[in-house]
């Protein structure tokens, strides 16, 4: 019995060695596992609706920066970058076409909270959130009425926007005015979001954990960078389109981090 047991154990060891040899020569091992993981994570991110929108937003910011950098050296190529930026901006608007409904739903929830939420809520924070989501909803609804992307490159695309709206279906005399007014509501919404984050970080819960504090700081940076977009559009903040584009890159990368994690779930 002892001999047979040893024979079996030797055979099993040889089998394990043989299996290990097969694993080392497997074709699947030719591809580094880390590379495969990154590719899979990226596809998960781009297949996620919000992830794809953030990817397009990053490309839009880069094309805007490219147009501004090239305007003095190669105006023809700069115009191509600007046109590409306008097309990408238009494609992103389809992702948020009905987002105003979500905003007004949040407003309704804040108006009529559950009993437990009403008892535990911060009145200042609730008021800021209420006005913020109202402004966001108005901005998105007004933007939907124009379907004409924000014209940051006015010196490049003036003639194009005189002739037709971004979709090329129907042109109106009030679309440019409507878009500027919409961006005023966006500016107010981002300003209120900044105030709400500062309130939560410094006043409402100053002894919060480090992880929560970092999330509020990230939110402040994102909103602060995005604030330049509507601010420059309506003329309340005097910055160049290149500065707007670079801040847009920063805010997009920071916002995409949390979405990247969510897309892998």
TrEMBL record:
Spans traversing the lipid bilayer: 185-204, 233-256
One of the Pfam families matching this protein, by short name: PEX11
A single cellular component GO annotation: peroxisomal membrane
Start and end residues of each stretch annotated as Disordered: 1-35
InterPro entries: PEX11
UniProt feature, compositional bias: Polar residues: 1-12, 25-35
Compositionally biased intervals (Basic residues): 13-24
Keywords: Membrane, Peroxisome, Peroxisome biogenesis, Transmembrane, Transmembrane helix
Domain of life of the source: Eukaryota
UniProt keyword Membrane, yes or no: yes
Localization in the cell: Peroxisome membrane
An individual GO BP term: peroxisome fission
Protein name per the record: Peroxisomal biogenesis factor 11
Organism of this sequence: Byssochlamys spectabilis (strain No. 5 / NBRC 109023)
């Amino acid at each position: 019995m002892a001999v047979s047991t040893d024979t079996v154990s030797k055979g099993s060891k040889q089998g394990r060695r043989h299996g290990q040899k097969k694993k080392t020569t497997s074709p699947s091992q030719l591809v580094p596992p880390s590379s495969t993981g990154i590719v899979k994570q990226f596809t998960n991110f781009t297949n996620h609706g919000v992830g794809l929108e953030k990817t397009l937003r990053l490309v839009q910011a880069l094309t805007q920066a490219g147009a501004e950098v090239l305007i003095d050296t190669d105006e023809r190529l700069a115009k191509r970058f600007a046109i590409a930026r306008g097309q990408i901006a238009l494609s992103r608007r389809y992702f948020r076409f009905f987002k105003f409904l979500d905003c007004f739903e949040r407003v309704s929830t804040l108006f009529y909270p559950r009993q437990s939420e009403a008892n535990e809520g911060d009145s200042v924070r609730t008021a800021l959130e209420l006005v913020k989501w109202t402004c966001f909803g108005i901005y998105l609804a007004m933007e939907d009425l124009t379907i004409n992307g924000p014209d940051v490159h006015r010196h490049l695309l003036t003639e194009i926007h005189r002739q037709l709206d971004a979709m090329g279906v129907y042109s109106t005399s009030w679309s440019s005015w409507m878009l500027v007014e919409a961006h005023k509501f966006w500016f107010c919404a981002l300003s209120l979001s900044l105030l709400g984050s500062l309130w939560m970080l410094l006043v409402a819960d100053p002894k919060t954990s480090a992880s929560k504090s970092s999330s509020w700081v990230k939110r402040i940076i994102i909103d602060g960078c995005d604030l330049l977009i509507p601010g420059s559009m309506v003329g309340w903040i005097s910055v160049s389109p290149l500065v707007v584009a670079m801040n847009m890159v920063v805010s997009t990368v920071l916002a995409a981090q949390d979405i990247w994690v969510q897309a892998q779930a």
